[in-house]
Specification:
The chain has about 350 residues and is an alpha+beta fold. It has three domains: about 180 residues, no CATH class; about 80 residues, Arc Repressor Mutant, subunit A; about 55 residues. Helix content is about 40%, strand content about 20%. The chain contains twelve helices and 15 strands. The strands form five sheets. The protein has a four-stranded mixed sheet. The protein has a four-stranded antiparallel sheet with strand order 3-4-6-9. It has a three-stranded antiparallel sheet with strand order 13-15-14. The longest helix is centred in the last third of the chain and has 18 residues. The N terminus is likely disordered.
Length: about 350
């Protein structure tokens, strides 16, 4: 046996951020946040029953695709997404405080259940365990870029989940969740949007999905309209077009009576759905969050100076972002190229300042 020595106890609490390669969730009341990639694309099932369908989605060009494959437990559902939202929210709050984070997150099960408005009895813990199983089992194949990185391989929404500590009756207390690179890349690039807390109070899966789409595409614009055909495709709904319109109409009718949809009032205009901003979000910078999060490279600024000689490139950048905001446009897939092209056209129309 080695020599026994008496340790000198530090007056400070242990630095938990440096223990192992994981991040401990300990920030209460963190604002709910979702990653833009899964808000824009129908990754999560709207079904309340096990969904074992393989689903593939392509954009209008057919160049970008996303394929979702279930495990034996079925595809992860829109309610399972709560786990992801909680982890993203905690990590973003820590990053805003300048703290060290990693893609392995340790959390308290009770805190997650409370924050996502779930019951905290045995049903809540059982549902959480099932959610973790589906999140780990659901596999995605895509070439959609997150954080400037294009994923071409097959990966799970979360790489692993592990119960670190549980009570004597088997109820989990602490969990470790390892996020996929795809999700963590989006967090590091701050490709996330803040969600209204009442998101967790929405009963219908379709309501949650419709809100996510509005939050992503409408952002802080005054209003946004989308055809029911496009909305159904973005929702990933397998209903007939007639049934989908009926389901949407029911949500609209309830919102007209109760104003229950977060951030946006909804109404139907023929075969279009119209979202009207309620003004409940704090306006910070450009109108559209997706556009405001665009980052340009130093090479883009230099190329813009050559394309529009004499113009202040930062003034051009603001004009470019405002132009996209006013037009309700999505963020370009190659921001550098789009910004340089805008600068060139700006110079062609106006010449030197």
């Amino acid at each position: 046996m080695g020599e026994i020595t008496k340790e000198i106890r530090s007056p400070l609490l242990p630095d938990r951020q440096e223990q192992g390669d994981f991040f401990v969730c300990d920030i209460f009341d963190a604002a709910p946040k979702g990653d833009m990639a899964s808000m824009a694309h129908p990754i999560f099932s709207l079904s309340t029953k096990p969904d074992h369908r393989v689903r593939r989605y392509e954009d209008e060009t057919g160049k970008n695709y996303l394929e979702v494959k279930p495990s034996s437990e079925g595809v992860a559902t829109i309610h399972d997404r709560d786990v992801l939202i909680y982890c993203i929210s905690q990590i973003m709050a820590a990053l805003n405080e300048g703290r060290q984070v990693s893609r392995t997150v340790r959390l308290r099960a009770f805190d997650l259940l409370k924050a996502t408005n779930r019951v905290t009895d045995g049903r809540g813990y059982d549902a959480l365990k099932s959610a973790l199983t589906r999140l780990q089992g659901t596999q995605i194949e895509t070439n959609i870029v997150t954080g400037g990185t294009e994923q071409m391989d097959l990966f799970s929404i979360i790489d692993r989940a592990r119960i670190v500590r549980q009570t004597r009756d088997g109820r989990m207390q602490e969990i470790e969740v390892q996020l996929s690179d795809w999700v963590f890349n989006a967090i590091q690039a701050q490709e996330v949007l803040t969600l209204h807390r009442n998101y967790f109070r929405l009963r219908k899966p379709l309501e949650r999905r419709i809100y996510e789409i509005a939050r992503k595409h409408c952002g802080r614009q005054k209003s946004w309209r989308v055809s029911l055909e496009v909305l159904q495709r973005k929702c990933g709904s397998t209903s007939t077009s007639r049934e989908f319109k009926r389901l949407v109409g029911s949500i609209v009718a309830q919102d007209e009576s109760h104003d229950h949809m977060p951030d946006y009032a909804v109404r139907l205009d023929g075969n279009f759905m119209v979202f009207q901003n309620r003004g409940t979000m704090v306006k910070e910078g450009p109108v559209n969050d997706e556009i405001s999060s665009i980052k340009l490279s130093p090479q883009a600024y230099e190329a813009a100076r050559e394309a529009a000689p004499g113009w202040d490139v930062y003034h051009l950048e603001q004009e470019w972002r405002t132009w996209m905001d006013d037009g309700g446009l999505d963020a370009p897939k190659i921001p550098d190229k789009a910004f340089v092209g805008f600068s060139r056209k700006w110079f062609e129309k106006r010449g030197r300042p």
